[in-house]
Amino acid sequence: MRAVFPGRFQPFHLGHLAVIEWLLSKYDELIIVVGSGKDSHTIYNPFTAGERILMIKKGLKEFNVDFTRVIFFPIMDSFTSGLWIRNLELYSPKFDVVVSGNPLVISNAREAGYIVDLPPMFNREMYNATKIRKLMLENNESWSELVPKSVYSFIKEIKGDERLRDIARSDY
Ligand SMILES: Nc1ncnc2c1ncn2[C@@H]1O[C@H](COP(=O)(O)OP(=O)(O)OP(=O)(O)O)[C@@H](O)[C@H]1O
Ligand SMILES: NC(=O)c1ccc[n+]([C@@H]2O[C@H](COP(=O)(O)O)[C@@H](O)[C@H]2O)c1
């Protein structure tokens, strides 16, 4: 069976990693769809689609997760949710199951006739990207504990946390 796991991954964190490990033990193939693919350089979506795919690959490699059974691609948001799932189908190889904890994605997938698999929540209070972006904005380095080390290094290398603080400034 082939499962699709959509997410914005802004940034990729240890909760996402745990979901992917769980999915690879359960399904033959996994499609990781980087959503809101056109968006970057905003407070909600600071990283580009390519940066996000690279973060995921670096994180998986660090944890010795074999990603030969994983397909990665970005898609853009659509005008309507109904169109979003149809757009996903247009970009993707066929899939059997949609994996998400996001109520909007779950509802879209069910309405389009897909089986939905809800991932277990892995320390959701700690591992959530909103919290990580907030810590970056506050210049609080403790976010380093919430992402793979390779992802932390990559974000520092591209000055991703500085980018987020720059974007959040009011007019000069
Ligand atoms: N700690 C976690 N455990 C299990 N699933 C998670 C966890 N964090 C995120 N997910 C799931 O991963 C998918 C992609 O999530 P997303 O990239 O939005 O991360 P997020 O941490 O929810 O980010 P944000 O706070 O920016 O919305 C969603 O289906 C979400 O429910
Ligand atoms: N109307 C739409 O374009 C639509 C609907 C449902 C989900 N999505 C996208 O799916 C992705 C879901 O990922 P998250 O669970 O990380 O929010 C996001 O990029 C979200 O924007 C878009």
Overview of this protein structure:
42% of the residues lie in helices and 13% in strands. The protein is built from 7 helices and 5 strands. A 5-stranded parallel sheet has the order 3-2-1-4-5, sandwiched between helices. It starts with a strand and ends in a 5-residue tail after the last helix. The protein has a single domain (2-167), classed as HUPs (Rossmann fold). The mean pLDDT is 97. It is an alpha/beta fold and 172 residues long. Bound molecules: adenosine-5'-triphosphate and beta-nicotinamide ribose monophosphate. It holds the Pfam family CTP_transf_like.
Descriptive terms for the model:
binds adenosine-5'-triphosphate; Rossmann fold; 5 strands; alpha/beta; binds beta-nicotinamide ribose monophosphate; 172 residues
The CATH topology corresponds to Rossmann fold
* Overall shape: globular
Briefly, what CATH class?
Answer: Alpha Beta
Bound molecules: adenosine-5'-triphosphate, beta-nicotinamide ribose monophosphate
**Oligomeric state as shown:** single chain
* Radius of gyration, whole Å: 16 Å
Give average pLDDT, whole number: 97
Beta-strand residue percentage: 5-15%
Q: What is the end-to-end distance?
A: 53 Å
Kindly report the spatial arrangement of strands forming the biggest sheet.
Answer: 3-2-1-4-5
How would you spell out the order of helices and strands? EHEHEHEHEHHH
Number of domains: 1
CATH superfamily: HUPs
List the helices and strands and how they pair.
Layout: E1 2-7, H1 14-26, E2 29-34, H2 49-62, E3 70-74, H3 81-91, E4 97-99, H4 103-111, E5 115-117, H5 129-137, H6 149-157, H7 160-167
Parallel strand pairs: 1-2, 1-4, 2-3, 4-5
Helix pairs in contact: 2-6, 3-4
The chain binds adenosine-5'-triphosphate and beta-nicotinamide ribose monophosphate.
Beta-nicotinamide ribose monophosphate binds next to strand 1, helix 3 and helix 4.
